[in-house]
Amino acid sequence: MIGIAIGVALGLAGGIGGFTFVYARGASYLTNDPAACANCHIMNDQYDAWQKSSHRAVAVCNDCHTPHGLGPKYLTKGLNGFWHSYAFTLGGYPDPLQITWRNSRVTEGACLKCHADMVETMQAGQSPESISCIRCHRDVGHQH
Questions:
Q1: What is the pLDDT of residues 89-144, one digit of tens each?
Q2: Of 58, 50, 44, 53, nearest to 110 (Cα)?
Q3: CA-CA distances (angstroms) from residue 112 to 73, 83, 128, 133?
Q4: How far is 55 from 141, CA to CA, in rounded Å?
Q5: Are 74 and 90 in contact (CB under 8 A)?
Q6: CA–CA distances in Å: residue 127 to residues 51, 123, 131, 132
Q7: Cα separation of 110 and 65, whole Å?
Q8: Is the pLDDT of residue 42 over 80?
Q9: Domain at 41-137, CATH from 1.10.3820.10, 1.10.10.60, 3.40.50.150, 1.20.120.450
Q10: What is the DSSP letter of 103?
């Protein structure tokens, strides 16, 4: 009897999870296509602003918002996907959207990686944590 209950519970969880993955276009989040970020209507303004930005020619969302290693990239995408789904399902997301501390560190790292030559001169004698690119340049990739 317990085996049947466990089987039913696993079947329901798998069915609901599979349906949600397909309905939410989950496979699109495994790509580098910026249009995947606009699957959720709350990201339309950021996506539209990115399309008009200078960074459109050189970077997609993942270049700035995920780490550059394969494992860390998909760990970040998974964590963000879980928490985004959680917040949107329960209605607990801030409006306007706010970047988390962890994700701002990822974005700062991307700035420092792509603009290393320029930043090296600015950082002379300072720790990398003392300079914040997005504090002054938060509208570069897309407007807020």
A1: 888 777 777 888 899 999 988 988 888 888 777 766 666 666 788 888 877 877 66
A2: 58
A3: 17, 26, 9, 8
A4: 6
A5: no
A6: 33, 7, 8, 11
A7: 8
A8: no
A9: 1.10.3820.10
A10: H
What would the two tokens of residue 93 be? 């997301």
- Write out the two tokens for 42: 């709350």
Which pair of tokens denotes residue 17? 């999870």
Domain ranges of the chain: 1-30, 41-137
Q: Provide the 3-class DSSP secondary structure of residue 68.
A: coil
The answer, as to whether pTM is greater than 0.70, is yes
Contacts with 82 (C-beta within 8 Å, 6 or more apart), sequence order: none
